[in-house]
Amino acid sequence: MADIERAPFAAHPNRCGASAGPNQCPNLSIKLAEGEFGTRCLAHGGNKQVESEKLSSLRNYRLTRWQGLLERHANSPQLKSLRDEVGLARMLLETRLNQIEDTQGLLLQSHTIGDLIGRIERLVVSCQKVEVMTGQMLDKQDVAEFGSRIIAIIYSHIDDPVILDAISKEILGLITADT
């Protein structure tokens, strides 16, 4: 910790701004950085200014670091996809479940597990909404139309009606099956 220094003269620009009785404090303000001084000496809270400056500097460093990550993710082509987040949440749930060894452990972790399940559900719902809005997900009608087009392509290349009928039934069976 630095020592308290007296200002060399009364009108010094870096003199502590606190009152010392009826007069201004005769000490120099705390040095914050090269060429920068605070407004108070150590005796009048200058150390708090140093701590505040350090916290501010650390906060700015962290903001800069996170800003870079944010920009990288914001420019990602997968921006409108929540699939990675769903996968990560499911991995967290699986890891938590694998750590449980007995019924007591399950009871102790039930709140965390329930919370993870709720988050996964919200992520899946959000993911489906985004995929529908961006046209990444087909509804049943779109899938049926796509299947009909595939059957038409196959019909244009195969002449055997028995094989065509079997292929058509299998494709339509896949489309109409509830999975």
Overall description:
The chain folds into three domains: 1-75, no CATH class; 78-133; 140-176. The protein is 61% helix and 5% strand. The chain contains five helices and four strands. The strands form two sheets. A two-stranded antiparallel ribbon has the order 1-2. A two-stranded antiparallel ribbon has the order 3-4. Strand 3 (31-33) and strand 4 form a beta hairpin. The model has no long low-confidence stretch (mean pLDDT 81).
Instruction: Give me the side-by-side strand order of the main sheet.
Output: 1-2
The pLDDT mean sits at: 81
Span between termini: 70 Å
Return the string of H and E elements.
EEEEHHHHH
| Number of domains as seen in the coordinates | 3
The low-confidence runs, each spanning 5 or more residues with pLDDT under 50, are none
Shape: elongated
Strand content: 5-15%
Sheet bearing the most strands, described?
2 strands, antiparallel
- Please tally the β strands and state the result: 4
In short:
With 179 residues, the protein is mainly α. The protein folds into 3 domains: 1-75, no CATH class; 78-133; 140-176. It has helices spanning 46-74, 83-99, 103-133, 140-155, 161-176; strands spanning 19-20, 23-24, 31-33, 36-37.
Describe the SSE topology.
Blueprint (H helix, E strand, L loop, with lengths): L18 E2 L2 E2 L6 E3 L2 E2 L8 H29 L8 H17 L3 H31 L6 H16 L5 H16 L3
Antiparallel strand pairs: 1-2, 3-4
Helix pairs in contact: 2-3, 4-5
Overview features:
5 helices, mainly alpha, 3 domains, two-stranded antiparallel sheet, two-stranded antiparallel ribbon, single chain, elongated, 4 strands, 5% strand, 179 residues
